[in-house]
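Below is a filled-in request sheet from our internal design queue. Each sheet records the structural input a requester submitted and the sequence that came back. We keep these sheets so that new team members can see what a complete request looks like end to end.

REQUESTER: design group, bay 2
PRIORITY: normal
MODE: inverse folding
CHAIN LENGTH: 358
BACKBONE (tokenized):
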């Protein structure tokens, strides 16, 4: 196996520096700029803590600010840099601006240089770090969502195979995955043994997914009763339509809600603000941006269908907007209001107070 060694001589600079890092699985391409924008050092090192530490030790500087794009390598590199005394942050890839004329030229050297340059200019926003424990707990929620989606795909696959081979359910038996429908599938819906074998294998896979989803549900219920989340989860579940899964999705995905100074920031983070096009005297607003956290946004919209049946004020809001636009737009507008209510509930630590629909 090929080994790499960093040179040990110091990198001559005593100024503050900005380190742009283009991160890959086995290597890091790093560009370092000083306060005047001059390139201090550029090159590649293996993706390992000891190599990063070796480079940091070579910098005779007062402060190092490092930045890299969010990606599949996660937050470990950020934690390494912070342990070494650097200021480090991760930026969204969509906020890194591409230079004109470089759209068809993409190299690791240019990517790392752009990161360092834009960080030095203060042009890059930072992604909030939830903390290692929070990330591990969030994986429980996200894995559950992935398994539920996989289960839906398998059920659709069974129906697709039945349709393709012209196998119809008995009259009066709806394909709604009831016990009667599952019993019919178990007994063998087709005269072909091969087709029945295929369906049985898919059913066994669905059963396995059901078991794993139950395990994840049990863990989420346990987290909701833990000292860290219990009070907040109970406050959120005081809202009609917000159950345990939605409450834990908000808590695990958003983390500390106090980091949003204004209501608009939270709504924007969820992608529940309208898109806008303005030029001169003209202004046109469109659909929501959908540029935020998709999981919470989807959960809130689903919760709103229950909320509008119980909350008088939300029901009036829904009916008013539905009359002018349509039901889909109206429920998204209610979801935005619900997001602001959730922020207020977590900030003030008071349960939801509402007048029931008469």
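RETURNED SEQUENCE:
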């Amino acid at each position: 196996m090929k080994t790499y060694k960093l040179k040990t001589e110091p990198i001559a600079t005593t100024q503050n520096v900005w380190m742009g890092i283009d991160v890959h699985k086995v290597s890091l391409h790093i560009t370092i700029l000083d306060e005047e924008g001059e390139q201090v050092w550029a090159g590649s090192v293996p993706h390992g803590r000891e190599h990063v530490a070796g480079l940091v030790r070579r910098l005779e500087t007062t402060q190092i600010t490092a930045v890299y794009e969010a990606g599949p390598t996660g937050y470990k590199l950020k934690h390494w840099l912070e342990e070494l005394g650097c200021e480090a942050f991760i930026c969204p890839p969509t906020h890194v601006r591409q230079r004109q004329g470089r759209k068809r030229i993409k190299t690791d050297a240019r990517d790392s240089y752009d990161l360092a340059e834009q960080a030095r200019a203060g042009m890059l926003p930072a992604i909030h770090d939830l903390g290692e424990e929070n990330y591990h707990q969030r994986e429980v929620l996200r894995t559950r969502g992935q398994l539920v989606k996989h289960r839906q795909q398998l059920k659709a696959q069974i129906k697709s195979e039945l349709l393709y081979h012209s196998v119809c359910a008995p009259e009066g038996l709806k394909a709604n995955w009831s016990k009667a429908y599952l019993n019919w599938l178990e007994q063998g819906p087709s005269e072909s043994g091969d087709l029945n074998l295929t369906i049985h294998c898919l059913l066994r896979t669905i059963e396995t997914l059901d078991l794993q989803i139950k395990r994840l549900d049990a863990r989420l219920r346990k987290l909701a009763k833990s000292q860290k989340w219990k009070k907040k989860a109970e406050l959120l579940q005081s809202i009609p339509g917000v159950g345990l899964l939605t409450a834990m999705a908000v808590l695990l995905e958003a983390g500390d809600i106090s980091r949003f100074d204004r209501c608009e920031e939270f709504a924007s983070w969820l992608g529940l603000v309208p898109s806008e096009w303005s030029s001169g005297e003209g202004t046109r607003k469109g659909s929501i941006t959908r540029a935020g956290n998709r999981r919470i946004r989807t959960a809130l919209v689903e919760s709103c269908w229950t909320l509008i049946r119980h909350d008088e004020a939300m029901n009036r809001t829904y009916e008013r907007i539905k009359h002018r636009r349509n039901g889909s737009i109206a429920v998204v507008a209610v979801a935005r209001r619900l997001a602001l209510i959730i922020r207020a509930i977590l900030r003030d630590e008071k349960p939801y107070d509402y007048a029931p629909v008469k």
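SHEET NOTES:
- Strands lie at 17-23, 27-34, 39-46, 64-69, 87-91, 274-279, 282-288.
- Residues 1-6 have pLDDT under 50 and may be disordered.
FILED BY: M.R.
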